[in-house]
Prior knowledge:
By secondary structure, the chain is α/β, with parallel strands linked by helices. Helix content is about 30%, strand content about 10%. The strands form two sheets. It has a six-stranded parallel sheet with strand order 1-2-5-6-7-8, with helices on one face. It has a two-stranded antiparallel sheet with strand order 3-4. Helix 4 runs parallel beside helix 5 (about 145-160). The longest helix is centred in the middle third of the chain and has 18 residues, at about 115-130. The radius of gyration is 19 Å and the shape is globular. It starts with a helix and ends in an 8-residue tail after the last strand.
Amino acid sequence: PRLKSMGIDVIWLMPIHPIGSENRKGGLGSYYAVKEYKKVNPEFGTLEDFKKLVNKAHELGMKIILDWVANHSSPDNIWLEHGHKDWYTLDSLGNIQPTLGTDWWDVADLNYDNAEMRKEMISSMKYWISETDIDGFRCDVAGWVPIDFWVEARKELESVKPVFMLAEAEGSQMYEAFDMTYGWEFHHIMNQIFQGDKGIEDIYTYFNKDSKNSSQLQMHFTSNHDE
Length: 227
């Protein structure tokens, strides 16, 4: 597996892009409401500052992966200023929709039936590889984005340099494009053991099942903000 072959530390950075102003949650807003995919949030500095960070990490034998939000953007993303309303999910009245089934009223859902949007999303990802030499991406709610997009994106990114891809999702299908997924099932098993609903034997059952797919790396965790 690519991560093991690196033999080095990987640093995952949360989204570094500017945050939209429209429908902000709280005064600061969410870093997952991206306004411009090819810009650095001025709160963090400049593009040159970021390049220096990546270069220093590489000097120290570390790799940098960037959090990437492909499922949605802010409702005032620069793409809308450029007239690309059809790049978003619209209701019957032509209004831009947030991601359905969530309380994410501060973001706008992207339309993956639109080929031009897909092309620009991949272009934006390639920009960070080419321009700043990062080493891959942690992809937010990756399972809510069509897998064929990720397969295409991975191919395009690898045309620039080898990358490491972590999906915030679970399931064998994700390995068509990703090196590692999240271990949601194991996290839930551990919670159920703590609550007295499962026992230690359930850990053995889980890992015995998982050993059949030993090449499929998972990132196990004890907690995160979604849980």
